[in-house]
Fold this sequence. Notes:
The complex is a heterodimer of chains A (113) and B (113). Chain A is mainly β and 113 residues long. Chain A contains no helices and 11 strands. The mean pLDDT of chain A is 94. In chain B, strand 9 and strand 10 (102-103) form a beta hairpin. The termini of chain B are far apart. The A-B interface holds A 4, 31, 33, 40-45, 48, 50, 56, 58-60, 90, 94, 98, 100-107 and B 1, 3, 30-31, 33, 35, 40-45, 48, 50, 88, 90, 92, 98-101, 103-106.
Amino acid sequence: NAGVTQTPKFQVLKTGQSMTLQCAQDMNHNSMYWYRQDPGMGLRLIYYSASEGTTDKGEVPNGYNVSRLNKREFSLRLESAAPSQTSVYFCASRVGGTVNEQFFGPGTRLTVL
Amino acid sequence: GQQLNQSPQSMFIQEGEDVSMNCTSSSIFNTWLWYKQDPGEGPVLLIALYKAGELTSNGRLTAQFGITRKDSFLNISASIPSDVGIYFCAGQLRGGATNKLIFGTGTLLAVQP
Lengths: 113, 113
């Protein structure tokens, strides 16, 4: 039982390049989330998927798109990377219903030059 | 976006000392969660609280859901070097979207052996 896994662990992009961050969970959770973490800003929600087939914007969605590929997988895409998107990205999952506990992956450290 | 007031921002203590930190808000919460993040890793859930006044322990860690529902406290007894890391509180607002958590900005804990 690996929990929440993320790939890649590190990535360096040039401004304007695109990439997709992958996230998968093996806990049969219904809800999945993408956050970014910046110094002094805490964790900020980018997008979330309450259940398979649905996605919604979070607090900072601009410049990102997501796909809930199936119940296990939730990907985050940067279409045209900008230096302001340099951050650490975390995926999380939650079983759903009235249980609010979220479980996080190990993160992807992204640098945009 | 809304964030929780978490204090202190950082603590530098000697091994064996007890530690206290807290999160406060002007809003009422249904759930309080406490996470620990080690350097280069994702947040790991320590304790979940769902009822006002609830006191829950996990080894040397004890957390409480404040009676007013607007705050929560985390205590660590007899600290050891592996307690080093950043501790985050997170809460789910009463009346807020059940899918979303609000995060504190973290307390950095350093333990001197």
